[in-house]
Write a sequence for this structure.
């Protein structure tokens, strides 16, 4: 029995075997690279777009919660209740801004249709800053109302706070919602592009595997046929080599002829 190490050391592949092996290895490497790229795109779609879209939905819900807190502050019956309601506003605002910053830190892209995630996220930031500024003015007016010395001054400040919340902060809240909707549409557009790229990569890889497999199989058969044809040609040449039709005399025959002549 031949030892495996000795067999490996004594193995000398032919040129045809080397060509077929290199083609198979190259086809496998190309397919692996394409599938690895698709796997990476799928991970990005999940971590940055599926989870990112969920974060954007949470941002919208948190902004609505912030808006409802302002409305509850307008309806507070006492200063103590007003302070209890408004003490959560800084925490809510920080949570919203952190979610926006976290999404902006991800790999933002531009879709094939021209929709830009960086531009849309900046629009969301601007609209949020404008809304928070207007909401802060409303809270300041309400704070002044509860510290006013006269009832008439309180009524004036209350009316200003209500008008500001309705006429100033309200439209800015709508702008925040519109900016978030545009960003969600852009996220969906970019995710669609990545899905299409992944589908096309899988289709190209499948086609490459099919065509490459048939080509390697044909090449292997062709080279094998040539290897088997070469020994047959050599044996045919040997069989057709011209030889003398007259047999050479044997030594015994030559001796007998000499004796008869004597």
């Amino acid at each position: 029995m031949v030892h495996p190490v000795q067999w490996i050391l004594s193995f000398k592949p032919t040129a045809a075997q080397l060509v077929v092996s290199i083609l198979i290895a190259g086809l496998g490497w190309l397919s692996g690279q394409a599938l690895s790229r698709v796997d990476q795109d799928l991970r990005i779609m999940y971590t940055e777009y599926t989870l990112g879209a969920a974060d954007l939905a949470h941002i919208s819900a948190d902004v609505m919660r912030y808006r409802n807190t302002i409305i509850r502050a307008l309806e507070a019956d006492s200063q103590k209740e007003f302070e209890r309601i408004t003490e959560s506003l800084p925490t809510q605002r920080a949570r919203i801004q952190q979610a926006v910053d976290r999404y902006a830190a991800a790999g933002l892209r531009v879709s094939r249709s021209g929709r830009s995630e960086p531009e849309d996220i900046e629009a969301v930031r601007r609209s949020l800053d404008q809304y928070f500024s207007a909401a802060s003015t409303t809270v300041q007016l309400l704070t002044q109302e509860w510290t006013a010395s006269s009832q008439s001054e309180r009524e004036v400040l209350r009316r200003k706070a209500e008008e500001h919340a309705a006429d100033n902060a309200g439209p800015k809240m709508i702008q925040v919602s519109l900016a978030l909707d545009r960003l969600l549409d852009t996220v969906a557009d970019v995710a669609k592009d990545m899905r299409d790229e992944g589908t096309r990569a899988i289709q190209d890889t499948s086609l490459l595997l099919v065509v490459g497999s048939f080509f390697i199989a044909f090449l292997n058969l062709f080279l094998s046929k040539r290897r088997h044809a070469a020994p047959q040609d050599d044996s045919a040449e040997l069989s057709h080599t011209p030889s003398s039709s007259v047999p050479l005399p044997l030594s015994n025959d030559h001796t007998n002829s000499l004796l008869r002549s004597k």
